[in-house]
Design brief:
The chain has 2 domains: about 100 residues, Tumour Suppressor Smad4 (Sandwich); about 130 residues. It contains 7 helices and 11 strands. It has a 6-stranded antiparallel sheet with strand order 2-1-11-10-7-8, with no helix packed on it. β1 and β2 form a beta hairpin. The two termini are about 30 Å apart.
Length: about 300
């Protein structure tokens, strides 16, 4: 008989109060909406903020709204596997998520412990252990199935290649101001979305190009400076996530690796490029072969 997993959530509010909640289902929606399984204050959460789901490999989280910041162990979180000791933070609320064993499952486990082992089981174990060691020593490592890494493409076009679509100085000036506002808005969302971070840099560059066409040197210098500072920050964050992915694969921390894969995809998008194809392929291979394994 298949048991329905029980999600256990420990919710801690900024005033120190704590709630221990359980959901007898394979998924739980967290948000301020009345239909959510886990209700949070509207000032901390969107109507539908985060979807938690569980399968045979572990717990998976997916942010449903970018209106409020969501972090996992202090790192901006979009989607990925949730480790047993992972601390989610939504606004001012901290959440620990785990899987609780169902009552029926505990009863079944207790029954098995009470009964003694039969001679047939001992005989099978005597054969199974040597066979297991033989297979372990003779089979090729599973890590060989992982696809070989490829180099990522440039995140940004060269600033010199950016063009302003407006030819008239007045139109270029108006578009420059509009692009500057778009870039600043994207920059505000950048901590929670790699794609918005990339968009912010490219839009700052386009604003600078329009200010050049409009012969507005001060506005050009301001947009260029913001573009350069933002680009350095985004490139550093992207490099950090690549290093974390490399370390997670080297230490066989496959749940962490999947999280880094999803974060890297948020920077490069899912368009058809060798790097995005490699990330998607790596994600599928880990899901099929390694998801849910703990660090050895």
């Amino acid at each position: 008989m298949n048991e329905v997993p029980i999600l256990k959530l420990s919710v801690r509010h900024d005033d120190g109060t704590r709630q221990d909640l359980t959901v007898d289902a394979t998924q739980a929606l967290i948000g301020s909406g009345s239909h959510c399984e886990i209700r949070l204050p509207a000032e901390d959460s969107a109507v539908e903020q985060l979807l938690i789901s569980v399968d045979g490999t572990g717990i998976f989280g997916q942010v449903r709204s970018m209106e409020r910041p969501v972090t996992l162990n202090g790192v901006p979180f979009v989607e990925g596997r949730l480790l047993a000791d992972g601390l989610l933070r939504i606004g001012r609320v901290e959440i620990f998520v785990s899987i609780a064993e169902s009552g029926a499952a505990r009863s079944a486990t207790g029954s098995k412990k009470d009964g003694g082992g039969s001679p047939a089981i001992y005989a099978m174990a005597a054969v199974g252990f040597p066979l297991g060691f033989y297979l372990l020593l003779t089979q090729s490592p599973a890590d060989a199935a992982l696809p070989t890494e490829v180099q990522p493409p440039p995140l940004f076009a060269a600033a010199s290649a950016t063009r302003c679509p407006e030819a008239a100085p007045e139109s270029a000036l108006a578009l420059g101001h509009e692009e500057l506002r778009r870039a600043e808005t994207a920059r505000e969302r950048a901590p929670f979305s790699g794609q918005d971070a990339v968009v912010a840099v490219n839009t700052f560059q386009r604003a600078a190009a329009c200010f050049t066409r409009a012969e507005a040197p001060e506005r050009f210098r301001d947009a260029t400076l913001q573009s350069e500072n933002m680009q350095k920050s985004v490139e550093l964050d992207f490099h950090v996530h690549r290093v974390r992915l490399e370390r997670a694969l080297a230490t066989k921390s496959y749940e962490e690796a999947r999280t880094e894969v999803r974060l890297l995809l948020s920077y490069v998008g899912r368009q058809t490029t060798p790097y995005s194809s490699w990330l998607n392929s790596l994600d599928r291979q880990i899901e099929l072969k390694f998801a849910g394994k703990k660090r050895q």
